[in-house]
């Protein structure tokens, strides 16, 4: 089979009118930066990249050295190409403008430079998540408010998974596609075109240690799954939890399943655990483009109007039938209370 590189794939998509040259360049630049992050994560103790950076990010979370390194790699790579108006990151309180020395583009890039970073030191998969929006016209100074666009406005989204293989999974609204980094030639090569998530599943991902803190509809739903073939669902369910959203979502895009980070009494005051703009929205876009569904327990994630750059929400995504069921349980609970 003739291999298709990411660049060739993007050129073909441009010819079909699916994306423009600036967006294509942006995706290439992000992919190139992620190759450098893959090299850094792969070095581990040999590159002095393990452990904490000794700083906290805007969310009050301890930063790992690799969080900081990955953030810098993405910022530096994206500063000079002329494809961006500004960047925003999990690791920075405010958006980063493009330096005056460089031309400005029409896009806004949001990213979580290293998702699941508690996995770094134990040599388990981590990832980068990104989302691309159009910068509103006529803006000379980009502020956080310009990033507050619902997920349906995303022009592209993707993640790079640093696991046994380095994979890029990408959408620009014409399906969800997977590319594998060929380490010998240094290129991302198309390995799955038009990924489809099965509508049904018998596998779920959730942090069960939070069970006692969940709301009643979540407790009811998971209880029914755990009852397996003896309960109302009439079949046994399997559970997996990598604690890196990228890896858990990748499993769903490979063999189906569902991922949940619901509201609980610990994260309620913040609105949830996961960030809407650079975690939930890009993952929702990828999952929907693969035939799955993504809600916050009540509504489609991609239709939520963001209110803050680092806003958090509950996340329910994956195989359509399960997401519809768990969302129905939450909606019923709301109408009965
Ligand atoms: O902050 C994001 C994240 O690391 C996700 O990648 C992951 O799914 C989740 O948090 C893990 O949460 P917990 O540590 O509660 O299992």
TrEMBL record:
Localization per Swiss-Prot or TrEMBL: Cytoplasm
Cross-referenced PROSITE patterns: FBPASE (PS00124)
Ranges for domain Fructose-1-6-bisphosphatase class 1 C-terminal: 197-330
Metabolic or biological pathway, per its Swiss-Prot or TrEMBL entry: Carbohydrate biosynthesis; Calvin cycle; Carbohydrate biosynthesis; gluconeogenesis
Broad class of enzyme this protein falls into: hydrolase
EC number of the protein: 3.1.3.11
Cofactor mode of binding and number, as noted: Binds 2 magnesium ions per subunit.
CDD domains attached to this UniProt entry: FBPase
Single Gene Ontology MF annotation: fructose 1,6-bisphosphate 1-phosphatase activity
Alphabetical UniProt keywords: Carbohydrate metabolism, Cytoplasm, Hydrolase, Magnesium, Metal-binding
Cofactor: Mg(2+)
Self-association and partners: Homotetramer.
UniProt name for this protein: Fructose-1,6-bisphosphatase class 1
